[in-house]
Amino acid sequence: MRVTFTVNGRQESADDVWEGESLLYVLRERLGLPGSKNACEQGECGSCTVYLDGVPVCACLVAAGQAEGRQVRTVEGLADGDRLDPVQEAFVECGAVQCGFCTPGLLVQAHDLLERCPRPSDAEIREALAGNLCRCTGYEKILDAVRLAASRKEHR
Amino acid sequence: MDFLRPTTWQEALAAKADQPGAVPVQGGTDVMVEINFGVRRPPALLDLTRVAELREWSMTGGLCRVGAGVPYAAVIAELGGPLPGLAQAARTVGSPQIRNRGTVGGNLGAASPAGDSHPPLLAAGAVVEVESRERGVRMIPAAEFYLGVKRAALEPDELIRAVHVPPATGPQYFSKVGTRNAMVIAVCSFAIALHPRERRVGTGLGSAAPTPRRALEAEELLAAELDWDAPLDPALLRRFGELCARAAAPIDDVRGTAAYRVHAIGVMARRTLTWAWTDHLEKRAA
Ligand SMILES: Cc1cc2nc3c(=O)[nH]c(=O)nc-3n(C[C@H](O)[C@H](O)[C@H](O)COP(=O)(O)OP(=O)(O)OC[C@H]3O[C@@H](n4cnc5c(N)ncnc54)[C@H](O)[C@@H]3O)c2cc1C
Ligand code: FES
Ligand code: FES
């Protein structure tokens, strides 16, 4: 089947999509957007997190056909041109990125948190990121990065 | 494989009637895991996310009617007042990403003994509204909905449309044992709902038997012996815990032993009744 939806503001179509295929597969393998990572394909790791109609979801659990006509925003769509989003800047500066596999999902989920809740408590950050696994950083630097991004966003 | 995209409820029922093998998909948080891992290769997927009415909830006839496609995130944000037990359970499901997509209807469709919606629906006395094109609407009490492990009282041509839940008239609590605070399937779980007007207490056990179930003897004990104007009698509380534990018929598995589950159900039963009773007495005093 053919699936057409908007990705990061651009209309995109994919042909010959298998009906059981996930949105994640279409993004990575058919549309050349490898930012969202495929690690578990079962909703456990969060590394495939994207916005679907403005709501963060695991792209590996969305059937491609369910995205028809909808708006998708991936990690590739967080930056404003060459200017990184404050969340992205903070992850780089705080050393919250090591192998980087978990990073795209964490960025989208942290971005959503700060949109909804500009000054999150530590408990709120932990709650928001509970579905994103990182095997490298030990999470403390990720928490630092989200706190830094929150304070920067406030002063922008 | 076909991908069916009804946009109205009538179209959805027609699609299911014409192709009973089609697997409904809402949040996909159960269905897509199975497809990704090749556990399931259905002849068709029936996407229900375009049927707008499934995503709505309303108060009708004194009951809260929650559409099958209402995601957990909306249950938490909008239904904590009328349905506190269900909202508490929804807060413990998966992660934010899972709660944004996963639905109560999908939890009912999957009918896993570990599904977190089931205990609060049982305790509240919910009724599941299902429908088929040929036979119309059937109203199935939650207690009759679960037939076996991952087996529900749903005919191949039927779809779940909504669940009707009496709004709380007294305190409700949900308690879940897991190996960490987030992202875990329940080792076992327990829900309680006080119904002060009927002088009755509802219960629901999760992950403690082949199906979610009520602790009927424990409910009968309280209906007969609870004094609604007095502090909880410790002996009654203990017997309540014992009867709830006795209602469990769990198995040993990777998440816990049967003996542990029986014990934990008794503990959760006592704790949740104590919390609920404290709220009940405070409300009366106020
Ligand atoms: C990482 C992860 C963590 C999870 N954690 C929890 C947890 O803590 N607690 C918990 O209870 N569950 C958990 N789940 C399981 C799942 O999220 C829930 O069961 C959820 O309620 C399913 O809803 P859904 O809309 O995604 O269902 P779907 O996957 O779309 O469907 C589930 C089943 O219901 C059927 N179905 C769906 N809608 C209908 C309908 N209208 N009529 C008839 N049948 C229908 C489908 O065919 C399928 O068999 C988790 C899943 C994942 C991936
Ligand atoms: S790849 Fe989707 S959650 Fe892990
Ligand atoms: S940086 Fe490697 S998994 Fe998080």
Automatic annotation (TrEMBL), chain A:
E.C. designation(s): 1.17.1.4
GO molecular function annotations of the record: 2 iron, 2 sulfur cluster binding; metal ion binding; xanthine dehydrogenase activity
Alphabetical UniProt keywords: 2Fe-2S, Iron, Iron-sulfur, Metal-binding, Oxidoreductase
Transcription among keywords: no
Organism domain of life: Bacteria
Domain 2Fe-2S ferredoxin-type positions: 1-78
Matches recorded under Gene3D superfamilies: 3.10.20.30, [2Fe-2S]-binding domain
Presence of keyword Oxidoreductase: yes
Enzyme class: oxidoreductase
PROSITE patterns linked: 2FE2S_FER_1, 2FE2S_FER_2
UniProt-listed InterPro entries: 2Fe-2S-bd, 2Fe-2S-bd_dom_sf, 2Fe-2S_ferredoxin-like_sf, 2Fe-2S_ferredoxin-type, 2Fe2S_fd_BS, Beta-grasp_dom_sf, Diverse_Oxidoreductases
PANTHER family: OXIDOREDUCTASE WITH IRON-SULFUR SUBUNIT, XANTHINE DEHYDROGENASE IRON-SULFUR-BINDING SUBUNIT XDHC-RELATED
Protein name: Xanthine dehydrogenase iron-sulfur subunit
Automatic annotation (TrEMBL), chain B:
Ranges of residues in domain FAD-binding PCMH-type: 1-170
EC numbers for this chain: 1.17.1.4
Pfam families: CO_deh_flav_C, FAD_binding_5
Keyword Secreted among UniProt keywords: no
The entry's keywords: FAD, Flavoprotein, Oxidoreductase
Keyword Oxidoreductase: yes
Gene3D superfamilies registered for this protein in UniProt: 3.30.465.10, CO dehydrogenase flavoprotein, C-terminal domain, Uridine Diphospho-n-acetylenolpyruvylglucosamine Reductase, domain 2
Parts forming coiled coils: none
Tree of life domain: Bacteria
GO molecular function terms attached to this record: FAD binding; xanthine dehydrogenase activity
PANTHER family found in the cross-reference section: XANTHINE DEHYDROGENASE SUBUNIT C-RELATED
Protein name from the UniProt record: Xanthine dehydrogenase, FAD binding subunit
Organism: Nonomuraea gerenzanensis
